[in-house]
Amino acid sequence: DDSLLWGPYRPNLYFGIRPRISKSLSLGLMWIKNVDSKPDFEKLRHTCEQSDGMAEYGWSMYDPRTGGVQTISDPGNNIDLTTEFVKITDGSQKGSWGTRVRGSFRDASHSSNVSLIWYIFMESDDTKSKPNTLECQKGAGPAGVECHGYSHGLDSFTIQSPPVRTGDAAFLNVQGLRIPDNQLWMAKENFVKIHKASRPNSLASHQTENNVYYVEHMFSRDFEFDILFTPSQSQKTMSANALTEALKQANSTSLARFDAAFRPKSPFDGAQYSKFSQSLLSNLLGGIGFFSGSSLIDTSDQSKYEEEAIKTSTHSVNEHTKPELGKPVELFSSVPSRPVFPRGFLWDEGFHQLLILEWDLDLSIEMLQSWLSVMDERGWIAREFILGPEARSKVPYEFQIMYPNHANPPTLFLAAQAITQIFSKERPYHGRASKYLKNKNLADQVLDEIFFKLNKQYSWFRDSQKGNASSAQSADVYRWRGRTSQHILASGLDDYPRPQPPSLLELHVDAASWVDLMATVLRDMARSLGRTDSRVFEDQRVTIKASLDSIHWSPESRAYCDAVPSGTGFSQVCHLGYVSLMPFLLGLLDHDDPKVGDMLDLIRDEKKLWSPHGLQSLSKSDEFYGKDENYWRGPIWININFLAIQRLLDISQKEGPYQARARMIYSELRRNVVSTVYESWKITGYAWEQYNQDTGAGQRTQHFTGWTALVVKIMAFPDL
Predict the structure, then answer these.
(1) Model confidence at 200, in pLDDT bands (50, 70, 90)?
(2) How far apart are the C-alpha atoms of 677 and 339, rounded to whole Å?
(3) What is the third-level CATH fold of 6-261?
(4) Distance of alpha carbon 187 from alpha carbon 32, whole angstroms
(5) Which family does it belong to (predicted)?
(6) 292, β-bridge pairs
(7) Pairing of the two strands 344-345 and 384-385
């Protein structure tokens, strides 16, 4: 889709533009304060970092098909920036894009100036007969810059940066370099090296062998400049006026579409909540990236060392591990957090898509197809995709290695479930017009493709995570692989308490719950497609649910729990919290199932999971509550609270014994969760990875506009 070709698809940067084409063009932005005419390199900004001390940054409005506006407030460099980006998707300038950079000094009384550097680089592609090229030079007359180049997938293009219209550009320099491809991503480090070596001189226009160019402006007053991209096939050159008009149109259209898809409902129908909601949604959409490269994958026989790994307390690589770079892949994905987790995570992505698919169904399907394309021939999808040296530079070595027998919560099934419901008109859709909703044959075709891939993942999961059922009443029991004494990263709930001491015979209720969900979704997809094998998945679903009830249900705790062998059967090991709710959260219990009453009791118990700020991850009464790493041992997580609110809403709208109570809890929990995220955002300017169960304060990773953005949908839920 041409409208999705370009975007800020380098979300780890404060501003980074690239196409969805490997080995192609990239553009980035850096800035730095100069003191006594010398740059303060400690404050050179490029990649999003929590340590930079930004007052705030992020997209106030963004649509992946048109563009949007981002603001960056940087007290350390005494500058506020606005970066606007827009794409032309039709007419005589189709395929063009432009960005406008504005800067204003926060405190004009300070006698300092700022260097604003934008750069472009071109990767080589030895697989093509025609080489990629790039050449930039200063324009004639007033300072401006013009670049010409060619890249496979883009053809020929021109990039222009007209003379600065405001401010006082006391200095402009264009510096070209030839840098090895595997170091091009190190734009900040390379810039510092050449700057410290000597003040570079402007390049002559005949130097054509460079693959990276730095364009440096120095400003002491407020400024504004444009960067304009025109492809060779465009009939008209991109201009500043066209950029201005396109920006106005993009923002107007995005506001109208937001109102249709996600208008907050009472009591969150005030203007402040609309602004809050637009910000979270825009930052989720503005965090979509395109990634390419290879992952480190262990190629050893995992069965040789799994017995050893379960006895350890760390994830250190042992002598059996044989990490090798896998085949190169491409991934079109959103990210949990631009500064800390700027890459694709399987556990997170399904939750992200629950929002994206209601904004733009076709975009969501394209992203889902991208994720399914990185599945291996057996059906395994890695926990996360750390592709290439740039991505690996942010991750400790022991966490870079992916293990092909380790699973992760298969949340892509949540997205597939919603898509199936939209196709069958069981779920309302108010997003962008979809080609699939206009053409049933096309919808059936893509649903069949998704079904085929997800069925493969389902089969792999059932085989690879199968539990020891020798003492069980059913073969449908499961255990996450890759456990250490304190963690199961594969479960997504890292340090959530599990049976002690660890055992290869233990069974995990959340793993079984995800398998039940997979079977349910595949059954519904098969029915929608008119397939004859829908009954197979229904039979499997019934068997798995029977295992959940017979093996994982604790009559004493009135909750679902992990299980361990005991005599000729199993006993439950209960650490009440998110794991105990999982069959309820995933919609595996009928609305009138007696266990629903027990789930509501657990949710609303103030001595266990209930807090004024949302559902805690672990019961206050648990011996491990708040202990050690305290990651999933008390703090509030929005993705799980979303599942709870969604399920409570469903029960609230069906006649039955728990309707009234579910409605009451739904209203309370919805209000508590939204207020928690909103109040923290109002104070800090950010959404957070998790929230303190005692104070409601956001904590750990900031700018976590991945699944925390689900409060956008929670606000759009009805007020009952």
Answers:
(1) very low
(2) 19
(3) Beta-galactosidase; Chain A, domain 5 (2.70.98)
(4) 14
(5) Belongs to the glycosyl hydrolase 63 family.
(6) 330
(7) antiparallel
Q: Are 386 and 295 within 8 A, CB to CB? A: yes
Beta strand spans in 132-261 (E) = 133-138, 145-151, 155-161, 171-177, 212-219, 223-231
- Position 424, amino acid: S
Find all residues with CB under 8 Å of 129, minimum gap 6, and list them: none
- Residue 615 in 3-state DSSP? coil
C-alpha angle 74-78-84 in degrees, rounded to nearest 5:
50
In tens, the pLDDT along 297-326 reads 998 865 544 545 445 444 556 667 889 999
Catalytic one of 49, 125, 376, 494: 494
Residues 365, 369, 371, 375, Cα dihedral to 10°? 150
Q: Where are the domains of the chain?
A: 6-261
Q: pTM above 0.85?
A: yes
487 and 446 Cβ atoms separated by less than 8 Å = no
Q: Let me know if 209 is a catalytic residue.
A: no
Q: Based on the number of CB atoms within 10 Å of its own CB, is 463 exposed (0-12), middle (13-18) or buried (19 or more)?
A: exposed
8 A C-beta contact, residue 511 and residue 479: yes
Better pLDDT: 406 or 473? 406
How, if at all, do strands 401-402 and 296-298 pair? parallel
From the list 67, 36, 35, 40, the residue with the least C-alpha distance to 52 is 40
**Residue 689 annotated to the active site:** yes
Supply 239's token pair. Answer: 């201009």
In angstroms, rounded to a whole number, what is the distance separating the alpha carbons of residues 539 and 552? 19
Amino acid at 623: E
Taking the C-alpha atoms of residue 348 and residue 639, their distance in angstroms, rounded to an integer, is 9
Amino acid (one-letter) located at 706? G
Q: Is the peptide bond before 501 cis (omega within 30 degrees of 0)?
A: yes
On whether the CB atoms of residues 537 and 526 are closer than 8 A, the answer is yes
Kind and range of the H or E run holding 34: strand 25-35
Identity of residue 664: M
| Contact yes or no for 560/583 (Cβ under 8 A) | yes
H/E element, 207: none
3-state SS string for 371-428: HHHCCCCCCCCCCEECCHHHHHCCCCHHHHEECCCCCCCCCHHHHHHHHHHHHCCCCC
Region 710-717: mean pLDDT is 98
> What is residue 203's DSSP assignment?
P
- Give the pLDDT confidence of 90-119 residue by residue, as tens digits: 777 788 999 999 999 998 777 678 999 999
Tell me how crowded residue 168 is: count the other CB atoms within 10 A of its CB. Answer: 13
Please give the C-alpha separations between residue 437 and each of 257, 431, 442, 528, in angstroms, as whole numbers.
17, 11, 9, 14
